[in-house]
Amino acid sequence: MGTIRVLDYEIEHRPGKTPLEWLLVSNTDSMTATGQAQSATWMRVRDLMPPKEGTFAVPLDSDHVKVQQEVWNAIRPQYEAKRDMQNVTIDGTPLAAWGGATAKQIVALNQIGVLSVEQLADLSEAVLQSPIIPHLRELRSQAIQWRQGRPAAELNARLEELERKNAALEAALNDQGEEGEEPRRRPGRPRKEAA
Questions:
Q1: What does the pLDDT read at residue 166?
Q2: Predicted pLDDT of residue 192
Q3: Mean pLDDT confidence for 97-107
Q4: Does 103 share its domain with 76?
Q5: Per the domain annotation, does 113 fall within a domain?
Q6: Per the domain annotation, does 122 fall within a domain?
Q7: What average pLDDT does the structure give for the chain?
Q8: Are residues 68 and 124 in the same domain?
Q9: CB 108 within 8 A of CB 120
């Protein structure tokens, strides 16, 4: 087995879920003479990490776990270096989590320093003239609409939830009847008469 190289690192943002970390790995046995990868595979980082005590059905001293530990020991320094290069604090909603831009557009926007939807919405006119990213004005207008519509959508969802709860409470009060009245009889078994 040759040395394993980490070629790329990506974070997949998923709405409402924890992000997934992915590594593009290649074996040096499958490299050309110039160092280009002939084949590479995207793998989840959590699948490359060796299991912890009590979390895996196979004993930790098995050959399978030992090989996985060796692979992880070879990959870990490269993974940490790639992760730290991308581990920039993003102020706002990441472009990958937005869904309004393609992967190529996100890469191009990241190259000019735009990492969030809010940064995209705040782009200056000088940047919009850039021929690097096609349809940049349309992307910016979509980001502005998204930023303006998000608080309204959150308020509408909250309002609908409160109206639903209010209707349920009113129905419960109507079922109980007014104070002093005997509760309405429901269909079913008749009461036993006092003997």
A1: 92
A2: 78
A3: 82
A4: no
A5: yes
A6: yes
A7: 77
A8: no
A9: no
Three-state SS for the chain is: CCCEEEEEEEEECCCCCCCEEEEEEEEHHHECCCCCECCCEEEEHHHHCCCCCCCCCCCCCCHHHHHHHHHHHHHHHHHHHHHHHHCCCCCCCEHHHHCCCCHHHHHHHHHCCCCEHHHHHCCCHHHHCCCCCCCHHHHHHHHHHHHHHHHHHHHHHHHHHHHHHHHHHHHHHHHHCCCCCCCCCCCCCCCCCCC
Query: How far apart are the C-alpha atoms of 107 and 84, rounded to whole Å?
Result: 18
Beta bridge partners of 6: 25
Structural domain ending residue among the three candidates 86, 113, 135: 86
Same domain, 16 and 82: yes
For 54, other C-beta atoms within 10 Å of its C-beta total 6
Model confidence at 165, pLDDT cuts 50, 70, 90, reads very high
**For residues 45 and 79, what is the distance between their CA atoms, to the nearest angstrom?**
9
Same domain, residue pair 68 and 15: yes
pLDDT (0 to 100) of residue 3: 66
How far is the C-alpha of 98 from the C-alpha of 30, rounded, in Å?
A: 36
Q: pTM of the prediction?
A: 0.39
Q: Which domain holds residue 168?
A: 95-175
Cα 174 to chain centroid distance, Å, stands at 44
